[in-house]
Design a protein that fits this description.
Helix 1 crosses helix 2 and helix 1 packs across helix 4. The protein is globular. It is 57% helix and 0% strand. It contains four helices and no strands.
Length: 81
C-alpha cells in the first residue's frame, strides 16, 4: 500500500483498471461519465476490489451507487483514505 495516497496515484490506478476493462485511454477524463464508457456494476465491483487491494480503501455499495464519473471514483477513494 502506498504511504501517501494522492489524486495522481489514484487517478493512475483507476485509469489502468478502466483500460484493462477495455476502455480506450483517450476517452478517459475526470468528467467522463461511466455510462458512456460501458462500465457496469460488475466492472465497478472489480474496480472496488482493486482500490481495496492497492490502497486499503473499501467502497461500500452506497459509495458505488453515487459514482457517475471517473473523477467521482478518484475523489471518493482519496476522501476515504
Amino acid at each position: 500500500m502506498p504511504s501517501t495516497i494522492t489524486i495522481d496515484a489514484v487517478g493512475q490506478t483507476v485509469t489502468e483498471a478502466l483500460v484493462s476493462f477495455g476502455v480506450d485511454h483517450a476517452d478517459l477524463a475526470p468528467e467522463t461519465e461511466l455510462t458512456t464508457l460501458d462500465i457496469d456494476s460488475l466492472d465497478l465491483a472489480e474496480l472496488s476490489q482493486i482500490v481495496d487491494d492497492e490502497y486499503g480503501v473499501t467502497l461500500k455499495s452506497s459509495d458505488v451507487t453515487s459514482i457517475k464519473t471517473v473523477g467521482d471514483i478518484i475523489a471518493i477513494v482519496v476522501a476515504k483514505a
